[in-house]
Every structure is written in structure tokens, then in C-alpha cells.
Design a protein that fits this description.
Elements: H1 3-77, H2 80-86, H3 91-100, E1 111-115, E2 122-127, E3 130-131, H4 134-138, H5 141-149, E4 157-162, E5 167-174, E6 189-195, H6 198-208, E7 214-216, E8 224-229, E9 235-241, H7 246-295, H8 305-314, E10 323-331, H9 333-340, H10 342-357, E11 363-368, E12 373-379, H11 384-393, E13 399-401, E14 404-406, E15 409-416, H12 423-440, E16 445-447, H13 450-472, E17 475-484, E18 490-501, E19 504-506, H14 508-518, H15 521-536, E20 543-547, H16 550-553, H17 558-569, E21 576-581, H18 584-587, H19 589-600, E22 605-611, H20 618-624, E23 628-631, H21 633-637, H22 643-658, E24 663-665, H23 671-680, E25 684-685, H24 696-708
Parallel strand pairs: 15-16, 18-20, 20-21, 21-22, 22-23, 23-24, 24-25
Antiparallel strand pairs: 1-2, 1-6, 2-3, 4-5, 5-6, 7-9, 8-9, 10-12, 10-15, 11-12, 13-14, 17-18, 17-25, 18-19
Amino acid sequence: MSSNLVGRHLRTQTSSIIATTVCFLVVALVLTGLMAHVVVTMTRSANEIDDARASRAARAAIAAFVARLSATTTDNAVWDDAYSAASTPAAADWAYENWGKTSAEYALYDGAIVIGPDRSSIVSAYAKGKPFQPSAFFGEGFYRQIGAAADPAQEPVVNFIKTESGIALIASQAIQPFGEKAELPKLSTLSFYKEFTQEVLDTLSNEHELEGLRLEATPKPEFLNTPITDMKGAVIGYLVWPSKAPGSTVFQQVTPYVAAAVAILSLFLVGVLLVGATEARRLRQLAQAALFEAGHDSLSGLLNRSGLLSLLGDMENSESSPTRLYLIDLDGFKAVNDAWGHAVGDDLIRMVSKALMACHPEVVAAARLGGDEFALVHVGSATCEDMEKTVLALFAKPYKIDGRTIEVGASIGAAARDGDVEPLELLRRADMALYRAKANGRGQAVEYDPELDQERQRVAELESLLKNAISSGAIEAVFQPLVSASTGTVTGLEALARWRTATGNVSPEIFIPLAERCGLIDALGVHMLRTSIEHAKNWPDLALSVNVSPVQLCNPGFAAEVISVLQELDFDPKRLTLEITEGVLMTNPEQARRSIDQLKRVGIKFALDDFGCGYASIGALRQFGFDRMKIDRSLVSALDEGASGADVLRATISLATALQIPVTAEGIENSRQAAILRDAGCDQLQGYLIGRPMSARDISGKLREDAAA
């Protein structure tokens, strides 16, 4: 996964956690707000309901107070005895005995007043059993009340009235007989009053559950208030009492529990915030670590391929000096791993990484692109030659690791960013230059040139032609005779590949390595094996030798494929010899050994080609059990260079003889070479002296001529 994808992925996770935490907190706060609103609403509603009940109770108390005094007044004013006495000279005494004296301790009224028919003369007026002056006590409102109550058809007139000492309730009604009369003269008026004392208020409070009820001249905002009005509707006082506020009382009772719940919720929300913040911080740290890991090599700490491309992309719009990219491939690193193990190889990689990063002040970044491939990004005025010399100088001296002396070299490919060159293109150009540097040999440095691309294009075109040539059979098999050194008779044939095109022949030294590089060698090898066997079936008395590429032999399916071709063409495996070079013994000896053993079990023989020019050990030669060795043509050519060449050749043949392996000498061009080789112990000869590579038709003709002779 690229660093950008990793970063986006982890940023998405972080954003999700933050969003989830915020949503959770919002939901929790909304729910808390709703619950708080419910509690407050219930508390307020309970208080308002009780306050409304209390207000109704206060009005009911006043109404009961009024009704009680009104009933008392009617009971006494509508009375035959009172009506009869009111018109006699003894009216005052009668009124005193029945009403005035009673007012001293009577619970229903505090005073009784009788006004004569003229509505102004006082017949009797007692308050608390003592005479008093109503006009002084009640003011002018008293006579308005009397005037309103003088009508015998009128119910008692009851009003609150302002008095000298406070507020009183006064009820007035005409004194009249109980029975109906057609016409009545003007009547006297009876009035009872009851002062609104605290004692009366306490009674009303007990009767109507109005605790703390009292009378005030003005309303009290912090209490419940009910106005008291006089006969004109003017407010003359207020009944005031405290609200019970049952909702608030209940809320106070549950406040500790609510507080505990709020505290727990707060702790929970704080915990959620802390967890969310911790997780977000952890993810940010992971994102930073992942971004670093995605763009850096874990072993060396340098940038990796993704990190290098990202850096080059960031530098595209830079106004600094032109960027130059160097690719460095270590020469001999595989041998270090094979000889000392991967732990030492890793230590070497780390040491080389530090050296490359610090090799030049104009190196802005270093990267490790693969096992032993590095990159340097250079921005500055230093020339390419100076940078290459600086890098190569790092490998001029061996590295010391745990007492071991390790020597490695480097091949360098360089490419400069010209114009709007994309990072991938710049990397490709440097890689092309590195490929050419490695092809040129160890310790080489090559700068990118467009000619490299043109050559690559030519190689690609040649690859396409080679693929078509293999599939169409355009690559043909020619055969070079192998003769007995003692008799000179042809004992076998070596099949050689030839590619003839309309523009000329393509050398095997070109198309066989090309086939190995582009992955066509297996197809080419099967084609050559099949073609050679098809022709060799016409020569039943001769052995057939076919060259095998090391790449083929290291393919796990190679042995099965060869056996399949032999079975398909019904060819005797004992007639077939596969020739391999010494290089296969070093590149992948285990797989080579498995393939050789599997093929030898069915009767196929193996010859070691180009013996004497490689570095295979005697132990390896004995381990693989070769059936024949072919002396390299360079040793044969050395016979013409002096006596030392003959001595080397004889020593090489003696080695093969000591291993009890028969020897074939190739590249023989004159009779002297053939004689020396025959005397040295070679039992089979091959070369232009014996016969050039020929087509199958020419081989058949030569065999017929030899048979006729």
C-alpha cells in the first residue's frame, strides 16, 4: 500500500473516531438537556398546579367567609320579632340585647349596627359589645352600603371595607318580616361586620390548607397573592401566603441523586472524551508511523521506492538546481550473503546506507530500492563525474564487520531531470543507465543517453522477432560431427541453433543470451530439442548432443519436459547427451543436481561443456557425475601459442582422466592440434578440421559418402 493510501486510510479512521466521539457527546448532551428540561418542566408544572390550587382555595376561603357572614345577616334581618321591635321606641334596647351585647364574644361577627328607616339615624351600633361610631370607623362607604341594602327584596349586600384598624367584611340587609307582605314601609337596616384579623386568617388557613396566610397592603412578589376589593372594585388589600412549591420540594429531596447522576454522567462523558482523544492520538501516531514505514526501508532507514517517487514528485515544482538521480547496485553482494550469511549482509547494507547518505553535502536523500540497489537524489552544482567518483570511492576500501574483511564494488547509473520529467520516467532512465553499467563490467558508471532507449527498442524488436522465429520454426538446427580420435569415424553429432533472417544471419551469441534475458530460453530449448531429435531419428547409429542453458536446467519443470519430448518422439534416451557449462554448478547447484539426477535415471547423459575456462571445483565435478567433458576451444587454440599451452592442455585432460571421465576436444582446426589432443588422451574430436556445422541434408549426404568409402 502506498504512503498516500496509508495516510488516507488512517486519517479516515481518525476522523471516524472523532466524529463518533463528537456524535456520542452531542447525543449524551441532548439527552441530558432533554432530561433536565423534563425535570424542570415537571417541577415548574407541579408548582404551578399547586399554586393554582392554592389560589382557588384562597378565593374559596373568601367566598366561604362572605357566605357565612351573609347567612348570619339574613338569619337575623329576616325575622318577625326583629321587624316588630324595629318600629317601637324600645328598638335600641332590643337591638342591644339581641345583637350589640352578643358582639362582645360572638364568633360570627365583631359588631352589629342598626340604621333607622331614614337611612342616616343610628338606632344601635356596637363593636365588641361597646358602642361606636360607624361613620368614623368605616367612612363614607358604610352609608353607600346601607343605601344599597335598604331594599327589602335585596339579598344581603356584602363587601369588604376599609376600617380604622384594617379591613373588615360587612354584610347589610333590610330588617323585614319572615312572611311576605304586600307592602312594607321604609325599613331599618341591620349590618354585621367581621374584621379580617389574623385569627380569622388562621381559621381560613386551617380550613383551606393555606399555610402562612396573612393580610398585606401591597402584593408580595415572592408570595402568592389574592386581591381584596371594596364595593367600588378598588383593591384595599391582599391575602398573601407562601407557595408550597411541591415540585421544588420533591426536586430538593432528589437533588442528591440528580447530582450523583450528573456527576456520573460527567465522569462518563469525560471518560468518553479521554478515550476518544487517546484513540485519535494513537491513530495519529500510527498514521505517522505507517506513513514513515510506507515510505522508508525498515533495514536501512532510507527511503524505499514509494518514498523516493513521492520525494521526486514533491520536487517537481522546485525552483532549486536541477535534480539528478543516481542508482547504485552493489557488485559482489550476493557472494557476501552466500559466504557470511544474511546477518552480515544486513550489517553491510546498513553500513553502506550510512556511507551513501553522508557521501556528499549536495545529496538531499538516499533510498534503498531492493536487496542491494540504492538511489541518491542530488541537487547542486557538483558534476556527474564528481558524484560518481565520490560514490565509487566509498567502495575503494573493504568494510570491516565483526573482524571480517568484506570487499564489494558498485555500478552506477545516473539520469538528470530535464524539463517536466515524471518521477517514474526519471527512475526508468537511471535504471537503464545502471543496466548498461552492469553490462559493461564491475565498478562502472554510466549516464543516461537517449541512445540507450533506442538500443532497448531494438532489443525489444529483436525479442519480438525471436519469439515469432521460435513459434514459426525459423530457428533451425545444424549439426557438427563428433568423431572418434582413434578411428576417425563419426560417432555423434552436436546440434547447434542457427537463425537466418531476410536481412542476414543472427549469431547464437546474440539471440541465445537474449532468449535467456527475455524468458524465451525454455521455448527455444524445447524447439531445438524436438527439431534435433526429429532429424537424429534418421541416423539411428549416432549419438545426439544438445546444448542446454543454465536457465533451462534450473527450471523445476525442465526434466519432465525433456522426458515428455523423448516419449512423444519415441527417441532412445541413451542416445541423448545434454551439454551444460560450469556456470550452472554455481548459480543453482541444488536444482541443477535434481534435474540432472532425474534425467540420468532415464538414461540421458551429461557433458560438461567449455571445461577448463571456468571455476568448478573437483568436488563439484565428481558430485555431479558427468559422462563426458568437452575441452574449451581456448585451450586448443593455445597449442599454437607455445609449449606452455600444450602443458596446460595435457594437465586438464589428465585431470579428467583421473576422474575417469572421457574427454572431447572442440575447436580443432589443424592436424597438429588433432595429433596432440589424440596423444594427450582425448577420445573424441570436434572442429572445422573434422567438419563444419551442416544442415541435416548435408549430414545425411556425408554419412552416405563415408559409408560408401
